[in-house]
Records
---
Amino acid sequence: MTTFLFSQILASVSFALDITAFHFHRRAKTLTVLACSTGLLAWHFYLLQQPVAAVLMAIAACRFAIAVVTLRLWVMWGFMVVSMACSAYFWQGTASLLPLMGSLLMTFAAFQGQSSRLRGYTLCGSVCWLLNNIMAGSPVAAIMELAFSGSILLAAWRHYSATRRSGWV
């Protein structure tokens, strides 16, 4: 099995996790699934020799896991500073900006108390990662981000519709 094929298998498992993540009503369950998914993507990007994306995904896995237990702003800012420092250290030119922007948006998202804000900012970060995955030449990761974005939109619609039917809107 080639390294590329193995990286695509890891991205496929991550894909399956991502699709389910935003359909849970509990924020903690969503973040736990995202922590597992991003951990796999860190290995995926490492195998594709994309150090900035790999490090940022490893940081993201830790970030999602920690955001399950705390929403403290100093923790969020700490993750943002670490992400920027790692991006600077592993800098590969302007192509490193997309994973950094995606990571910063998703860091902000993870520390939002409301699920709707978590979904909205994650969607914006997902667009940055989609563009990065296309540029990195990873077809499975690019398709995964497209599906992930669609899943976020579908989950938001489902939750909005349920809230509207119950009379809370």
Note: Residues 44 and 74 are 29 Å apart (CA to CA).
---
Amino acid sequence: MVKSTLIFRNDGLPLSATVDDDQTQNLTEQKNQAKAIVNKVNSNSATEASIRSGNYTIHYLLRESIVFLVIVDKSFSRNLAFAYLQEIANEFINSHGNAALRSDTRPYQFVSFDSFMSKTKKLYQDSRTQSNLDHLNNELSDVKRIMTKNIEDLLYRGESLDDMSDLSYNLRAESKKYRKAARRINLEALIKQYVPVAMVGIFFVFIIWWIFLR
């Protein structure tokens, strides 16, 4: 389930966050890791990524110099997590996007946005909603590729979010290459299947022309 949602500007300024209602879970470590992830994000970073952290996963979405993060149980659907982040991002940018990027913006200036995030979180906790969105996003899973890394790799071994972006680009390039190859193979199969039939048809038309119309 969704545990916590945080919104930062990509320069590290916190803009908003949910008031977590599950006090039995201590997410201090994951929230600190989320801040560290924001500090690593730049214009070359992957716009979407998932980072595993113990029993949780931190997903982030970069939109218009704003980083939207959600901390979820590691069993929570990744597609669903990004659908949730997209909805949060769309509403926040529409409502506060320009103000959030101003130089005089204060930390947590948009704390009231928690109201929308809390309502949206409840919607995404509903099992029927999860089932419907999972089905929809599974149809898109081979189109959108979202990279997953371990928090240890990212924060403690010095790996870069830029590397994830490069890997994501390479995967998309490979996917395009294989799609082109598949189309070529299908075209060759169609040619092999129908060219003989076409040749026979042309031959009969020629015979008819030769006998009756010449």
Note: The chain has six helices and six strands.
---
Amino acid sequence: MAALTGGALAGCSGEGATSTCSTTGCTITFERSVTNAKISILGVEVQLVSANQDSATLKVAGQEVTVQRGNGVSVGDFTVKITEITDSQVVVQVDRGGN
């Protein structure tokens, strides 16, 4: 079994999404042009359901949540925050340590 050490881990790619992860969280960039864009990170699947200029609806580990840009919400063991919404992409920060 390999041990994880500090520093950034390799990014992952999914369907219409890419990520850059550390041992405690990931930044995911979803392409808005891809229907059902999704990616598996930190042992869970994160999917972009829909987005407008102020918020995005995501499915995190099977639970659907709507998050306002700039705000974070707890989903199970994770905190999910929308950091950027543009015409072409949605950037989401997912960190371990939700309530």
Note: The chain has one domain: 17-96.
